[in-house]
């Protein structure tokens, strides 16, 4: 490929249109750029082709861009003894195109966002053919510094393209923010539903316990007031009591009989029985499974509340 020009940029020269705005209006996107000491700009071909909708960047270059408008990054930077820019996305073998190559690719694409820019390019060519030249209008406000370059007004098509792109980006940002708010609200609603389901299941479990009690003793005389001895004797008949379960039963039965409910934290029962909190919880679960006790909510501190089943 041809070596890029190494002619120094003339003193006092400047760009009539900011290169970032120019490329933004041309491609509809912000793409990476290398600006060389002579003022020439080079762009990763893969970035430009992606934004313009070309599926295969190599084929797009071969079909549309002449060789004099494309290079690899090693050749471009090597001509000025510059190192490859930092960052893993700048590969040493990356294909680059200059500004002319970028414009050629824009003219060959069908991306709707590029239409205003392509119309302006067509206007420039038609004006040159008709009048022999094309000039940008000078901006209404000019720099006041001595020797400052003339400021030019951005072409109407380019300015409108940038305005539409920025408006689109603002709309996308707003849609993204709305989507995030909807997702947060959905997560909150889902959590509320899950919590309601848990409470409903707890109420169903309590009601089932009550129905079991009613079915086992639907008729007959009122039950006598339980004693610790009668409760323990009933529990022995009802389930196969292991040593750990019996240890917990001996501790909680007097509390259930005397106070009508058990509100002690598991840690307190574990301390009184010498068992682990996990084992105490397993013993209580077994007593509940065999309808010896059943839960009734919890304390403000989070400890479960159990009451006695009188069968």
Automatic annotation (TrEMBL):
PROSITE patterns: BRO_N. Keywords: DNA-binding. Residues 16-132 form the Bro-N domain. InterPro entries: BRO_N_domain (IPR003497). It comes from the Bacteria. SMART domains: Bro-N. GO terms for molecular function: DNA binding. It holds the Pfam family Bro-N. PANTHER family: BRO FAMILY PROTEIN, DNA-BINDING PROTEIN-RELATED-RELATED. This is DNA-binding protein. It comes from Streptomyces fuscichromogenes. The lineage of its organism: Bacteria, Bacillati, Actinomycetota, Actinomycetes, Kitasatosporales.
């Amino acid at each position: 490929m041809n070596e890029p020009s190494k002619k120094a940029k003339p003193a006092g020269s400047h760009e009539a249109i900011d290169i970032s705005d120019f490329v933004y209006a041309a491609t509809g996107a912000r793409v990476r750029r290398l600006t060389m000491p002579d003022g020439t700009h080079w762009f990763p071909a893969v970035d430009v082709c992606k934004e313009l909708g070309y599926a295969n960047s190599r084929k797009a270059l071969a079909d549309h861009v002449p060789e004099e408008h494309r290079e690899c990054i090693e050749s471009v930077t090597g001509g000025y003894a510059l190192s490859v820019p930092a960052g893993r996305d700048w590969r040493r073998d990356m294909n680059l195109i200059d500004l002319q190559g970028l414009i050629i690719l824009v003219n060959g694409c069908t991306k709707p966002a590029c239409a205003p820019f392509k119309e302006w390019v067509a206007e420039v060519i038609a004006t040159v053919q008709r009048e022999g030249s094309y000039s940008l209008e000078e901006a209404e406000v000019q720099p006041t510094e001595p020797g400052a370059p003339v400021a030019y007004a951005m072409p109407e098509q380019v300015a409108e393209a940038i305005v539409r792109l920025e408006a689109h980006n603002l709309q996308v940002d707003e849609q993204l923010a709305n989507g995030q708010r909807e997702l947060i609200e959905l997560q909150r609603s889902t959590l509320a539903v899950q919590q309601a389901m848990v409470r409903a299941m707890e109420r169903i479990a309590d009601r089932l316990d009550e129905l079991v009690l009613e079915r086992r003793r639907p008729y007959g005389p009122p039950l006598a007031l339980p004693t610790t001895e009668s409760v323990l004797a009933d529990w022995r008949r009802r389930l196969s009591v292991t040593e750990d379960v019996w240890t917990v039963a001996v501790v909680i039965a007097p509390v259930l009989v005397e106070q009508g409910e058990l509100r002690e934290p598991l840690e307190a029962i574990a301390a009184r029985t010498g068992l682990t909190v996990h084992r105490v919880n397993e013993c209580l679960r077994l007593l509940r499974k065999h309808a010896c006790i059943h839960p009734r909510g919890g304390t403000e501190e989070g400890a479960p509340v159990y009451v006695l089943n009188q069968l």
